[in-house]
Amino acid sequence: MESWTREHVPALTGVLSAVSLALVFGAALQVLPTGSLPAPEGLLAVIPHVNAVVSTLAIGTIAAGVAFARRGEYDRHRALMLVSLVLFAVFLVLYLYKVSIQGPAGFPAEGPAVVERFVYFPVLAIHILLAVICVPLLYYVLLLALTRPLAEVFDTQHKRVARVAASLWLVSFLLGNVVYLLLYVVY
């Protein structure tokens, strides 16, 4: 299986990305069947706050993972990037659960329209765009790293693509936290 995966990283990246993005957009558009999902109000209310903490932790682990890679400490880099991936998965599962039941959160009615139009929507749009772009990049670098010994990873596009992926991933998480602050703290 590892040999097949190793030889088909781009194709597998495409399939995993398509499935992942279909789940995300299916949840956001509320077209996924959710009738059998439990929907305790207390849990749904706490998810945005938990996800803000998870996002903040992911920002730290991504930044530290990049720093370890730059110093040549690849075992620590790999460990932190895998932790980042787990944090991202936790975030995504909680987000998809909440959004598939309640739909995407709207900007609060008491918030000023000028902030909604010129701050919230642009930040949200860039956050979503970067998150969508990150999905295939993250799958690609993950599959390259997991299907090869460390010495062979250097002969792939991992480093070049990972630089872009990590940068966009950090900005996406940061903008996600700005969206959280606008929705749940400021307004």
Automatic annotation (TrEMBL):
Signal peptide: none annotated. It holds the Pfam family DUF420. The keyword Cytoplasm does not apply. InterPro entries: DUF420. The chain crosses the membrane at residues 12-32, 44-67, 79-98, 118-143, 164-186. The keyword Transmembrane applies. Keywords: Membrane, Transmembrane, Transmembrane helix. This is DUF420 domain-containing protein. It comes from Salinirubellus salinus.
